Amino acid sequence: AGALLSDLRPLDILAEVVPPAGSPSGVRTLQAHGVRGLQLSAAAAQAMSFPASRIFFRCDLFPQEFSIVVTLKAPNLPPKVKTDLKVTLGSRPPCTKVEDAQFWFDASRKGLYLCVGNEWVSVLAARERLDYVQQHQDLFTSSETLGIEVFRIPGVGLFAATANRKATSAIYKWTDGKFASFQSLRTHQAQSWRHFTIGRKIFLAVANFEPNEKGQEFSVIYKWSHRKLKFAPYQRIATHSARDWEAFEVHGEHFLAVANHREGDNHNIDSVIYKWNPATRLFETNQTIPTSGAYDWEFFTVGPYSFLAVANTFNGTSTRVHSRLYVWLLGSFQLFQSFPTFGAADWEVFHIGERIFLAVANSHSYDTEVQVQNDSYVINSVIYELNVTAQTFVKFQDIPTCSALDWEFFSVGEDYFLVVANSFDGNTFLVNSIIYRWQGYEGFVAVHSLPTFGCRDWEAFNTSAGSYLIYSSAKEPLSRVLRLRTR
């Protein structure tokens, strides 16, 4: 082959095939067996004929097959731009002022990124798919954790607030790829945190379940100090065994809803919606809604309509109570739909394309008139779908769960997932929490089984390094961060 290459002469075949202006062309493109090329032809048969000596010299036999190397000349090319490109198989390279405007190709994930500011921005990325879940960090807490809130403060970083059972809850900051202790706050059997903003103001509200040392029951709203870079107490609100806060906005006005679980032994009490007063810069009572052992609020919108769902857990004698969905009409929330639930602990709303779903976590089927059995914790949780024509949510899928306390919806690439916090099966708190993947007509199908102990809450979050899940345990002072590995 080497001798043959040295014995070739250049031949401008195109000049002989491409006719003068106005004549039909003898060049056309073809594709066969996945290979695309040019076919050269001429009107006269002898036009494409030439002796072997025009191509080869010192060659007695004409080869049966050979390749033609075509050189294209483009006289008006744009000027060359010098661009640096990094290629890696391992960890992500730094993105600083030195690397600004440079490209990075991640060979393992088949993605092209551009360094903008201090962050790699995806320019071209292959479709990611969840492969497996990997333990990333054991987050040891001061006591059992009943809820986690992951949030970002622009220009400062990513944070996680843990609602701890004992007298101190904590805020952690994502530092060097892990959560590190950032701030401790005084709480009283905190159940959950809620991060929200009003303009440039950044708030964090805690739901306290127990009274303070003076016997006073307050939940507290903290405000972020841009000067001290810390959260400080801003407003105290009287609550009754508060389980959850939900922050939302309707027609430019800001609201906070608290789930009051019980007052003494009475579970049938009012939960309260507070409205932000721009003049006093405080939250003030706006509406009360009767609830039965309220555990969770979930706000969402459908087109121009605003909805608020409450998870009712217990009415004093039974966990078989109706949870309610309210719609905003004429300045207040009005009942829209009721759902039969069993110790409902959480609502999760999510969208897949144009479809809208609402999932409830059922924790316990119990009635004082019925003898308690172990399997009363192993019950179905339900996913509902909005039927736009009927203007109501209809049952879409039953999913068997073990005293489910939380649903979390997340996506990886173009795939959608739900993870459930299974906490107790009637015998042990050591039960698997399950990740379900959306599979269209099949609904949600179990794909990953994750060992958890007294699991209470799941949160999904993303960093520049990848996607993660974090879960809290109500039975041990340990939360875990899991990394979602993709392929």
From TrEMBL:
<feature type="repeat" description="EAR">
    <location>
        <begin position="131"/>
        <end position="176"/>
    </location>
</feature>
<feature type="repeat" description="EAR">
    <location>
        <begin position="443"/>
        <end position="486"/>
    </location>
</feature>
<dbReference type="GO" id="GO:0007165">
    <property type="term" value="P:signal transduction"/>
</dbReference>
<feature type="repeat" description="EAR">
    <location>
        <begin position="282"/>
        <end position="330"/>
    </location>
</feature>
<dbReference type="InterPro" id="IPR005492">
    <property type="entry name" value="EPTP"/>
</dbReference>
<feature type="repeat" description="EAR">
    <location>
        <begin position="230"/>
        <end position="278"/>
    </location>
</feature>
<feature type="repeat" description="EAR">
    <location>
        <begin position="332"/>
        <end position="388"/>
    </location>
</feature>
<keyword id="KW-0677">Repeat</keyword>
<feature type="repeat" description="EAR">
    <location>
        <begin position="392"/>
        <end position="440"/>
    </location>
</feature>
<keyword id="KW-0732">Signal</keyword>
<feature type="repeat" description="EAR">
    <location>
        <begin position="178"/>
        <end position="226"/>
    </location>
</feature>
<protein>
    <submittedName>
        <fullName>Thrombospondin type laminin G domain and EAR repeats</fullName>
    </submittedName>
</protein>
<dbReference type="Pfam" id="PF03736">
    <property type="entry name" value="EPTP"/>
</dbReference>
<dbReference type="InterPro" id="IPR009039">
    <property type="entry name" value="EAR"/>
</dbReference>
<dbReference type="InterPro" id="IPR011048">
    <property type="entry name" value="Haem_d1_sf"/>
</dbReference>
